[in-house]
Structure formats: structure tokens, C-alpha cells
Amino acid sequence: MSYNVALNFEDGVTRFINCNGFESVVDAAYRQGINIPMDCREGACATCKCRVESGDYSLGDYIEDALSQDEADSGYALACQMRPTSDCVVLIPTESQACGTKQESFVTRIKQVRALSGSTFALELQAESLKSLEFLPGQYANIHVPGEAHHHRAYSFSSMTAKGDTVTFLIRNVPGGLMSGFLSDRAEPGGEIEMKGPFGSFYLRPIARPILMLAGGTGLAPFLAMLDKIVAAGGSPHPIHLIYGVNTDRDIVESERLDGFTRAIRNFTFDICVVDVNSDHPNKGYVTHHIKPAQLCEGDVDIYLCGPPPMVEAVSAYLRDNNVSAASFHFEKFTPSIA
């Protein structure tokens, strides 16, 4: 039996390795050209101490000076002794380059650019090399702006095709933006775009309790990828509710896809709200206006939040002012760039 192990490094780079059931994480990583720092290989020095974010594993043999019981109970392990018994996500407390690896780069072709609304594009990129790409749902890639030598933009993956050779991103149409200008005026099917990734610590953790997802604008993208993953896994044992907020009616995108998730995931529900007071939508206001106490489950809830900084700050203030201490709170801020 072999398992996929995602190694998340301090610099945001994620690399995936395949680990056989009899291998330690260190040995599997070395076999695949990633040199996790270590000194002893015997569970004695603690140089390879890491934190297991998700998955099942055995700790192996080690001495308590290298890994205390409190640390083991908190999810820490020694990579030279840890042996996965399922797919895992492991946080490595060093930069990727220090381990002899780096971000992966893909040369892709534009498959399609679709204007989902006046404010949002869907960009589909295709390449045979993408079949080797793996990402945690919620992570992002850096996409080079064609014709701009040193400019790239970070966008969350919103989906990957079943064939694995196409990825999709939701991109906000920013007036005067470099990427927006390219997609509006110059992008053509077959055009070349370089993409690097995956990156980021915003991703779906194992579902252990109800989930509340809060999306602002194109911050919907990572949640679409997460929901795809949940469908592929056969659903969720706990309720999942998404609140998707936009500024105007014309900013609403992918509502049919969200409807599809309600049919594919038995206990998934969603609300859309619009800030514009002149909106025809029944739910007006900000996402915080539509969070119901029942969705917070008296704190026994995992909250995921992705949106612009003011939204992230407003939600954080809402939770603080209402004395909500969630079991976990994961967020990602994004700021549209022009220059």
C-alpha cells in the first residue's frame, strides 16, 4: 500500500510525495529528491520534527527527548520515524529550497477564457504536464501575465478536470489590471501561460464537525475546489453551509454549480447575499448579516473564509464581538492588483 503525502514548507511551497507503507516520510522524500533536514535517522535528535496536519500514521521508535508525549498528542512527529497509514498533510518547518526542492513550474496553453459576468473571468489552462500536478483544494498558483516580464498573479484553483490536464481559475476583472487587460483584449485559445505552484496553507482539512464557508467575490474559487473534493470523497458526514457575498447582482457567478453541489452533497446548503441595497436578490447586506447561530454550533464548527481584507477583518470582528471561538478558523485574504 502506498499513500500520497503533501509536504507543506515554510515558504508556502507544497510538494507531494508517494510513500510506501513500510517507508518513513524522510526515506520517501529522499527517494524523490527532497532532503528533509535530519541528523540521526534514529528518532533521537529532533532535527526532522514536523507537524501532521491531517491523516493517519504511526510514530515509530524515538526517545522522549526528541518528541514529548504532549507534542505527540498535539500532532507532532519525527519524519525519520513517521510511517503514514493514509494520505497525509505534513508541515515541514523549513523552506523548500533548504530541502533541495522548489516550486513546480508548468507551461500551459489557454483552453478557454469565459466572461462569467462583467466582473469575473473563468480562465481554463490545459497541458499534458498538468497530469502530474497535485494540489490541496483551496490552494493557489502563481500565473505569469503574458507580455509582462516580471509580473505574476496569485489565483486559487477552482477546479481540475477528471482527465487531470485542465485547471480552472476565477479571476476578477479589475479595471486597469494587467491580467484583466490581457484576458479582455489579447488572450486567445492556444496562447502560452506559465504557472507555478501549488502554494498556500488555506485548504480543506479532514471533516470532523460542521463547516461554515464564507466567500467574498472571487474568493468563491477555493470553495468550489473544496466542494469538488467532497463530492469525489462521497459526501460529508457533517453539515456544510456556504455564504457567498458579492457587491452587486451582476457579480454573482457559478450559482448553477452551487445548485449542483446541493444535489451531489446531501447535507450541503448555501446562501448568496448582495451588498447593493438596490439589488433584486432577496438576501441583502454582508455575509455577517446572514450567519445564523445554528450554523456556529456553539463553537463546534470549522470556519473557512476567503475574501478581500475588509471582509476578513469584518468576519474576524464579528466572531470576536459575538464571543464565537470556533474549533478551527482558516482564512485567506486577497487584494486585486493593477500594477
From TrEMBL:
Phylogenetic classification of the source organism: Bacteria, Pseudomonadati, Pseudomonadota, Betaproteobacteria, Burkholderiales
Residue ranges constituting the 2Fe-2S ferredoxin-type domain according to the UniProt record: 3-96
Enzyme Commission code(s) on record: 1.18.1.-
InterPro entries: 2Fe-2S_ferredoxin-like_sf, 2Fe-2S_ferredoxin-type, 2Fe2S_fd_BS, BenC-like_FAD_NAD-bd, Beta-grasp_dom_sf, Cbr1-like_FAD-bd_dom, FAD-bd_FR_type, Flavoprot_Pyr_Nucl_cyt_Rdtase
Enzyme kind, highest EC tier: oxidoreductase
Cofactor: FAD; [2Fe-2S] cluster
Protein name: Benzoate/toluate 1,2-dioxygenase reductase subunit
One Pfam family this sequence matches: NAD_binding_1
GO function term, MF aspect, one: oxidoreductase activity
Keywords, ordered alphabetically: 2Fe-2S, Iron, Iron-sulfur, Metal-binding, Oxidoreductase
Domain named FAD-binding FR-type: residues: 103-205
Origin superkingdom: Bacteria
